[in-house]
Amino acid sequence: MASSSRVRSAGVAVAVAVAAAAAVAAASGSGKELDQDLVRGLDQELGPELNQGLDRVAILQGHPLLDLPVSVFETRPREQTVMAPNERTPLRGGLQTPQRRKRLAAVVVGAVVVGAIALGWWWSSSGSSTASTKTPSSEHQASGANVGSAICGDAHYESGYITLANKKDDHYFYWYSESRNDPENDPLVVWLTGGPGCSSMMALLSENGPCHVKSDLSTEINPYSWNDKANVIWLDQPTNVGFSYGSEADIDKDEDDVGDNFYWFMHGFLDKHTELEGRDFYITGESYAGHYVPAAAHKIWQENKAVKEANATLRINLKGIAIGNGLTNSLLQMEHMLDMVDNSYNITLMNQTDYEQAKKKLPECLKLVEDLVKSGDLSPTDDQFKDCQLLMNPFQGAHRNPYDIRLPCGDVPDPTQCYDLTNVKKFLNSPNVQAALGVSPNRTQWLECDPRVGLEFMKSGDVIVNYESYVADLLNDGDVRVLLYVGDADTVCNWYGNKAWATGLEWTHKKEFNAAEERPFLTANGTVHAGDVLNEYKTQFTLLRVFNSGHMVPQDQPAVALEMINKFLLNEAF
């Protein structure tokens, strides 16, 4: 008989498996429980496209992992942008055609499954597969405000835009903070918030940035900012996320776009900051950044191989990636949602009977999802839909935050309302703050997440693509290090699922990595048992379980997160 701990969150696993079937039923008109206010909000945002069967794919009720925040569906006016000059590739004098994956027949199904799982909905390019024929000019446009320390902190900061050389009219917003330690020599780090479609400014002001916003909308220094020993960029991407903006006709929709755009952003940024060329470089991120980070790093790694072969100067000196509570191998991680019944917090989310039913039903529901994706059949029967959907009711009744099961969450329409983001939203929408940050008049309303961006990634099927092979390529290179860290109170992108794909990864030192003994992760000069090193191979690949933390480790355990990232940047063992 299973212990009480084994029945704590069984419903979550089924929710993930069922989400696809629920989304399919809704998209085909059989979904019965729809929030009509959210439907209207999406209609206002996304227009006629939603009248073609996509209008309900992201707004299902009946399970916490698919309840999207109302704030996501705020109406934002269409911006008018000004065309920027075309630009030349800094390496080859031409644009490389991205290699695109075959689109899945039932992309909406899997997209909703995992897209809603990723934190991004609340935390808040080329768009063609053909080669570009643009003839760019020689400069990246860069604009911005030197905000000094007037707004956020005790070091030099800069914010503004880089115009992407590979796009028609796309402008990426960034906030750059110099190191508090040794800015002339410390490494360069980029942070990417997930989604898909959510702004990194949220993490900057709530997690690992140089300051946090107080209730009176003033700021206070964050002593645990990740620019403690690094120069850090918080980047709004893809296009139309946060303060970034671009052409409606040239939208982003998958990791090919993410990788290409990130690569061109970095060259534009380094054109402006030549002192950072060749500096040790790391890409970090959270949640759906389990897609973003491998894609961006892999693009740079590929381009760097060509640079080395040409004996050219290496501008982007990629040294490593770090992913927190990431979503990388989506379908495999779905299978391990049920494993969170073995959480260490003595929290019961459903009774023994419900747990046994969920455990029995899970394989069937997962099979339903897989069959739908493979067949392209977007019309599951009502019985299939209802049988799986009913298993979620006990989990909802527990009133727990799926991103941090330690926290209660009362009778709210969706779990995103367990977090109060009011201060940050007011701060970033202040005209005075926007003026100081150099925000474009094309993008004066800041949202934590843009639903149009998320929908494009859903429709393309990007959310169910497995990107672990990109990580394997980086590891096999031998010069790129990887850190996976996971707060163990998160059910959504939990540590079981991350361990499953990490230990299953095919790479040169898989055997040694998997054979490593689990050991304590000690911080504060060895006085605090902050987590466990689950697997490792030297300092090249490390998987950390972080105790007493949910989905956002830098928010829940800021001191631990800072010591962790500093050790990684210094190439020290954990």
TrEMBL record:
* Keyword field contains Ribonucleoprotein: no
- The protein's Enzyme Commission number: 3.4.16.-
The answer to keyword Lipoprotein applying to this record is no
* MF term (GO), any: serine-type carboxypeptidase activity
From the UniProt record, give one GO term of the biological process aspect. proteolysis
Q: Where is the signal peptide?
A: 1-26
What UniProt keywords apply to this chain's record, in alphabetical order?
Carboxypeptidase, Glycoprotein, Hydrolase, Membrane, Protease, Signal, Transmembrane, Transmembrane helix
Membrane-spanning residues: 104-124
Describe the family membership recorded for this protein in Swiss-Prot or TrEMBL.
Answer: Belongs to the peptidase S10 family.
Record's PANTHER family? SERINE CARBOXYPEPTIDASE CTSA-4.1 (PTHR11802:SF113), SERINE PROTEASE FAMILY S10 SERINE CARBOXYPEPTIDASE (PTHR11802)
* UniProt protein name: Carboxypeptidase
